[in-house]
């Protein structure tokens, strides 16, 4: 038993289970890579003010959940709790918005950190794949990202998820709604912290999941009644484009999301098989975030999908992903000369693009064949001194049990033909 364990609320990804996570990341990023999104990777920690300004000082993420640290040089840093602010910072620092036509389309994958009460589907270290389209105000971009996420989930075989959609207005109409909502909230029986949140960002109170808060929100003014004509038209175009693409969604007037930077389009993907942690991903438009963190006006939209929760959604629907074995050919050598020859053959197979492995550790035939079975290899090649004297290797099909002698100089081509 090791002296150390993974920190509370975190997890290790270990084969063969980790292959499922890799397959999910590949499925989510696949539609993005085919739609003009380039890969970006940012540091695991950033200036704490990047998140305080962008994510919002009233959010639970900033007030309760960020892992912060002070470096030996006195800099205040935070482990990244989400991806959008970091990706936008990186794009601005690299002047990607000046390099050519907008939008700048980026996708990313990585680990994020929030100090939360650990439970199934909610971890202190979690994995996301995200996408950002930076520098263009176009309802077709909002629709594109929603459609791409829907395609990713469908490609994985998921069907029991729903897309929730709302508009949060913009800097023209939201202040009027904000004032009306604050007036309503001041008449409620709320705890001190919620009252403070209502004064900083009252929309966040609508996102409060506590029943004692939710029951008091009956009759609260709805943002749809305050949207300006431009926001209404924008939202209707997003809805029309999604509908035309055959993607089903539900209008959710209370959908706010947990970050302060959202404007206009906001959306969430929820799965009905995950209990209280039903959100598997979400995002929206954040037209003012660039200016919040010191950049120029760059209207943008994006999303992040949780890899952890997507895996749980697959399990809830009983979906087994078709994950090919990591090894196609397994080599079992009997004797020292055979070990040298077959090891060299494994190297040649790998050079030829064939996934091959070797029975390491000097095991006998019985133990080595157990390793071959465990590897999931389709073919096993076995050779001893007599085989080498005849210039052949015994090639066994692990599915049919058929075994044939194959000349060494024809082995790579024979293996390639059998694996087709």
Automatic annotation (TrEMBL):
Q: Which InterPro entries match?
A: aa-tRNA-synth_II, aa-tRNA-synth_II/BPL/LPL, Anticodon-bd, Anticodon-bd_dom_sf, His-tRNA-ligase, HisRS-like_core, HisRS/HisZ, HisRS_anticodon
Q: Name one Pfam family in it.
A: tRNA-synt_His
Kindly indicate whether the keyword Nucleotide-binding belongs to this entry. Answer: yes
GO biological process, any: histidyl-tRNA aminoacylation
Q: Which GO terms describe its cellular component?
A: cytoplasm
Record keywords: Lyase included? no
Q: What is its EC number?
A: 6.1.1.21
The residues that the entry says bind L-histidine are: 82-84, 114, 128, 132, 257, 261-262
**Annotated catalysed reactions:** tRNA(His) + L-histidine + ATP = L-histidyl-tRNA(His) + AMP + diphosphate + H(+)
Keyword set, alphabetical order: Aminoacyl-tRNA synthetase, ATP-binding, Cytoplasm, Ligase, Nucleotide-binding, Protein biosynthesis
Principal cellular location given in the protein's record? cytoplasm
Q: Origin, by domain of life?
A: Bacteria
Q: Name one GO molecular function term.
A: ATP binding
* Cellular compartments annotated: Cytoplasm
Q: What positions does the domain Aminoacyl-transfer RNA synthetases class-II family profile occupy? A: 24-324
Q: Which family does it belong to?
A: Belongs to the class-II aminoacyl-tRNA synthetase family.
Q: How does it assemble?
A: Homodimer.
Which PANTHER family does the record cross-reference, listed alphabetically? HISTIDINE--TRNA LIGASE, MITOCHONDRIAL-RELATED, HISTIDYL-TRNA SYNTHETASE
NCBIfam families the UniProt entry points to: hisS
Name-wise, this protein is: Histidine--tRNA ligase
Q: Which organism is it from?
A: Streptomyces venezuelae
